Amino acid sequence: MSTIKEGSKKVIVHIALILGLLFAVLFVFFQIYLPGYTNHGESVTVPDLENFHYSEIEKYLEARNLRYEITPDSGFVADAQPLAVLKQNPRPGAKVKRDRKIYITLNAENAPLIKMPNLVNSPIKNAQEVLANYGLIRGEIIYTPDIGHNVVLEQKFRGRSIKEGFEIPKGSQIDLVVGDGLGKQSLAIPNVVGMDEEEAEIAIVGSGLRLGRINYVTTDTVPKGTILKQLPPSGIQAKTGELIDLWVSELGVDINF
C-alpha cells in the first residue's frame, strides 16, 4: 500500500514540476521575450515628410527608428522640387512600432509631356478651366484690340504661339492673347443722314460698326423713317464695333432738334 502511495506522490511531484516549468517558460516568453521582440508598449510618431528631398529622408528616419520604401508610382507637381516627397503612408502623426516602414511617393524629376488643348475661340473662363484640367498653369493675359470680348485669340508657350496637339511639359505656363471687345481697325464712320432706317442699318453694320440708340423725331418736312442725325458724325475714325446713335423722322409737327 505504501508503495502505491509513494508512486502517486512521485507522479504528483513530476506533474507539479512540469507545470511549474511550463509556467516559467510561458512567463518568460510572454512577459520578457515577446514584448522585447515586438517592442511592446513602445511607439513612434510618424513625422511629416512632405517636401523633404529624397537625399534627406534616410538619415531623418533612421534617427527616429523608422525605415522607408519608395513606391514605384511617382507623381508630378509643378511647384514642388524634383524628388521631393509628395505623399506618405502612414500619414503624419500616426503612432507606429519602431522600425516600421514608411511608404513614400516622390515628385518626378521630369514633367510628363501632354498634348496642348485648343483654347482658341473659347471664352477666357472656359480656357482657364481646360488648362487646370490638363495640369497647365494660366500665365499672362495679353489683351489685344478685337471685337471678341474676353475671347482667346492665341495661345502661347514660352513666348511662341502653339497649336493644338503640340507636346509640352505638364505644369507649363500658357499665356493667352485675348480680345478686348473694341476691335483693332480704325474705320471712317459712314454718312447715313438722308437714308431710310433700313439702309442706314445696313450701311452701319456693313462698315463693322453697331447700331446704337434710335431716337424718333416728329417732323412734316421729310419722309417718315429718314435719318435726320447721327452720332458720332460721319467722317471721323471709329474702332470696330463702336455704336452709332440715330435720330429718325416721324410724321407730325415740325420740331427743331
Automatic annotation (TrEMBL):
Q: Which CDD domains match?
A: PASTA_pknB (cd06577)
Q: Which domain of life is it from?
A: Bacteria
Query: Record's SUPFAM superfamilies?
Result: Penicillin-binding protein 2x (pbp-2x), c-terminal domain
Where would I find the PASTA domain in this sequence? 41-108, 110-180, 183-250
The answer on whether this UniProt entry bears the keyword Membrane reads yes
Q: Which residues cross the membrane?
A: 12-34
* Gene3D superfamilies hit by this protein: 3.30.10.20
Q: Which UniProt keywords apply?
A: Membrane, Transmembrane, Transmembrane helix
Cross-referenced PROSITE patterns: PASTA (PS51178)
This protein is called PASTA domain-containing protein
Give the organism the record lists: Echinicola arenosa
